Amino acid sequence: RPFHVEPTNIVSVNDDMQRVTDEASAMNKRIHYYSRLTSPADRALIAPDHVLPAPDEIYVYSPLGTAFKVDSCTDGYGKNSSLVTIFMIWNTMMGTSILSIPWGIKQAGFTSGIILILLMGILTLYCCYRVVKSRQMIPLTDTSNWEFPDVCKYYFGSFGQWSSLLFSMVSLVGAMVVYWVLMSNFLFNTGKFIYNFVHDINVTDLVPGTNGSNKVICPSAASDHPPQNGTVMFSSGNRTGFELFEEWWDKSKTVPFYLIAVLLPLLNLKSPSFFAKFNVLGTVSVVYLVFLVTVKAAHLGIHLEFNWFTENEFFVPEFRILFPQLTGVLTLAFFIHNCVITLLQNNRNQENNVRDLSIAYFLVGLTYLYVGVIIFASFPSPPLSKECIEQNFLDNFPSDDIMSFVARIFLLFQMMTVYPLLGYLARVQLLRQFFGNAYPSLFHVLILNLAIVGAGVAMARFYPNIGGIIRYSGATCGLAFVFVYPSLIYMISLHRAGQLTWPALIIHIFIVLLGLANLIAQFLL
């Protein structure tokens, strides 16, 4: 009997072959997108042949040039499961802003702080959804390797290209400045802990604080005393040597300059791909912070005073006029809009993008809420006031606190590995625009890096307030990428299709005005 092939089998084979072809084409386009971020000679963001996804593994490229390898989480064709996609978005969005959330809640008031975290999460999620849809509204056959700045260039021409570059640089340089301030802080406290431990020196900070094994301090109340290093020695130790150490190990006067010797050479490397291997430290740091917050709250208990009708020094305000300071921090805390298209286009089921993005935002908001509310509620008031909550909540724990010491070590090492990656991205985006090459010469790169490092050192020396830096940079870059561009692009697309309605116009103009008001309020309050 002759061999017979059913037509349905032919269709099935053809479908499978087409599926493989489409997946390979999509992977090549993604690789092509990241290769456009570097010069031809620089392979930091170019995927070599041996990392193409095999049936049992996948490499997911993030905008920082890092590669996440996830085993047994794909369908064999280089696509991610929803679980992996959600984790990627959560991991990318979680950052240094988490350290300032408790301070932001204090500035906004307890109840309004919780409400603002929820509302800003919903608003930024909606704008993020508009970013994802913006590329799909472009009537071109091939936009698969476009990111949001490419969409801005399509709709607004050279203005969109250069303005997106400007605001992208604001977010990158702002993040690098915050990193420098935090690294100076963590290095100072780590060095102080090690010195006191090695020399068997018992000290007590000249700042108000609680007693007991779980001590909490109020550094802001010691502004009339010698800053940071002012201590009184109670037991053994060479006082001359101790005073010399305090003179040369100062949080703002010396330590920020010591970091230059380590980080400036790393910034000048042509390829920072080695540091991408430490990306997992970011996840470990966040998980450990959640653990630290939980343990501290279990020992400290809940301290909230809501007495409306009796005068109380430790009264917790539920609403405060300074609430825009929290919205500025949250704009950066929920910021992922300039790279969300790339993260979602690897999703196996594209129809689940909205669901997965919403779940990721929910988890991010839940993490911020948990850390912020628990730290605020467990802060011991009395005897201290909630006004003592610092812009970096780790500063409310003394340098000799073991759990805080471990957290600072984790964060210091993680930030020292991420900092060169951020500098590399800043170099690629800026120098390629002006010189057509990400590494035109060592002189060009050195001048750029000196300017970035100088900004970080200056801030760590004269304005070491990470909450202020985060809210200013967040409100600035968020104005463009979160509020203005997604809304304008959506309205222009509807107008060209003849589908723009008055409700849609009013709603999105209101979103633009919210972003503008958010930025202006940062400079008024």
UniProtKB/TrEMBL annotation:
InterPro entries: AA_transpt_TM. It is found in: Late endosome membrane; Lysosome membrane. Its main location: membrane. The keyword Transmembrane applies. The chain crosses the membrane at residues 83-103, 109-129, 162-182, 255-271, 278-302, 322-344, 356-377, 402-422, 442-463, 469-492, 504-524. Residues 81-192, 259-521 form the Amino acid transporter transmembrane domain. Keywords: Amino-acid transport, Disulfide bond, Endosome, Glycoprotein, Lysosome, Membrane, Metal-binding, Sodium, Transmembrane, Transmembrane helix, Transport. GO terms for cellular component: late endosome membrane; lysosomal membrane. It holds the Pfam family Aa_trans. GO terms for molecular function: L-amino acid transmembrane transporter activity; metal ion binding. It is a multi-pass membrane protein. It comes from the Eukaryota. It catalyses: L-tyrosine(in) = L-tyrosine(out); L-leucine(in) = L-leucine(out); L-glutamine(out) = L-glutamine(in); L-asparagine(out) = L-asparagine(in). PANTHER family: AMINO ACID TRANSPORTER, NEUTRAL AMINO ACID TRANSPORTER 9. Belongs to the amino acid/polyamine transporter 2 family. SLC38A9 subfamily. This is Neutral amino acid transporter 9.
